[in-house]
Amino acid sequence: MEKKPDWQLAENNYYKLLLDDTLAGYWVRNFKDNTGYLSPAFKKMFGYQDEEMLTSIESWEQIIFPEDLDKLYKNFEQHVKSRGEIPHRIEVRYKHKDGSTVWVQAIGRVVEWDEDFNPVRMIGCHIDISKQKKIEDDLKISEQQFKGAFQYSSIGMALVSLEGKWIRVNNKICDILGYSNDELLATTFQDITHPEDLRLDLDLLQEVIDRKRNHYQIEKRYFHKNGEIIWVQLNVSIITNDAGDPLHFVSQIQDITKRKQTEANLIALTEKLTARNKKLGDFAHIASHNLRAPVSNLTTLINMYNQVDELEDREEVYKNFQRVVNHLSSTLNDLIDSLKIQENLDQTRESISFEEVLGKTKEILVAQILETDTVIETDFSEVHSIIYHRPYLESIFLNLLSNAIKYRSPDRNPIIRISTGKLGKGVTYLKISDNGIGINLKRHGHKVFGLHKTFHRHKEAKGVGLFMTRAQVEAMGGQISVESVEHEGTTFTILF
């Protein structure tokens, strides 16, 4: 064989040194004589000095994991059968001299074939990937830990795309919203968010995407699968890549429905207590106002009794006196009963005759009616009765009729006209008209039904009766309105 020139030997040594330095573990295998070469870097990778490890095939086969040796040779066979088309590249484990495990990526290639395409010479390298494998293992452990913490967290957790699609959800959020995992993943959070809460949620998400904030927390409503409204406390943050570009959102959801219900109950209770306190105040006004007419009648009857001399006339006055006293007692009882049952008005409705209520009112106001020669005309032909709360209807009649007499015109005897009828959609109306002094509605219309609002200089005007009447009408779900012309009269219309 021709001897290689010195410059070529020097060049070969140079390439050998270069490979030893640049590759983690350079190796050569000759298949004809089953010999090979293992670079010092190859041996050092597993903790051996160059002289401690032979360059034979057996030397590295003894320190590779047996199961990985089988995989390596199978990969090599595929490389040979494909005549090099399938690369020889595989990750395998070796035992380090100190007993630890070294992960390497084994890369090789047949560089010389005989005429029958049998491998003659192969070169390759081993690259230490132990650090990368540890990172991968740590990531797997971290992923498993995250998966466990995510999936079995006591609060709802979800990964949500920038467009709002559920990417991943845990068991708790499925329990809160009533959907299965697959059902949620087929929707977006927008699909099940209450419309009134959606705009705020979307605006805050956009602020997070625009890096105006890192996260946000709100209370919002979702629709449960069964249609119920679920209140949640939502915490949202964003995950970005290394360049800072947003990838997806992380949402944490806690069910606060019971807390919101408790808050609503407390608010309702507070409002109820406030309303009760107001009703107690109103009751004081109502009681004093409703008792004023019977007491005034008693005073008038006493004066009449003292002015008549005939026994027969005195007996008639005395009978009226007894009636007023009885009605005074009845009024007191009705007021007390009314206070007790204000919370259950619907349960205390009954069929009441308008004629019956008017009769009782006339008996209470008998002295004033006689003294003023008041004429009362009625037309209950269309509607005779109504389902209503009796104390309220009696109070309404008493207030409006006593006002009609009280604010009568000095130029004529009082005439009060009372009628009932039907409007569309089953609405019943009651009209009470008088020919009294009337009300200047342009001046006083805004305060006709106000508490302690008066618009006449009458000495008995207290500004309570109409306020109380409207309160009672509206408490029963009705409406009251007024029409009036000064010096001509007033008409009150009540819709039931």
Task: Please provide a brief summary of the model.
Residues 88-141, 216-268 form the PAC domain. The protein has 496 residues and is an alpha+beta fold.
Features:
single chain; 496 residues; 4 domains; 5-stranded antiparallel sheet; phosphoprotein; rod-shaped; 25% strand; 16 helices; Helix Hairpins; Beta-Lactamase; alpha+beta
Explain what the structure shows:
The chain has 496 residues and is an alpha+beta fold. It has 4 domains: 121 residues, 2-Layer Sandwich (Beta-Lactamase), CATH 3.30.450; 124 residues, PAS domain (Beta-Lactamase, 2-Layer Sandwich); 83 residues, Orthogonal Bundle (Helix Hairpins), CATH 1.10.287; 146 residues, Heat Shock Protein 90 (2-Layer Sandwich), CATH 3.30.565.10. It is 46% helix and 25% strand. The chain is built from 16 helices and 17 strands. The strands form 4 sheets. Strands 2-1-5-4-3 form a 5-stranded antiparallel β-sheet, with helices on both faces. β1 and β2 form a beta hairpin. α14 runs antiparallel to α16. The radius of gyration is 50 Å and the shape is rod-shaped. The termini are far apart. About 1% of the residues have low confidence.
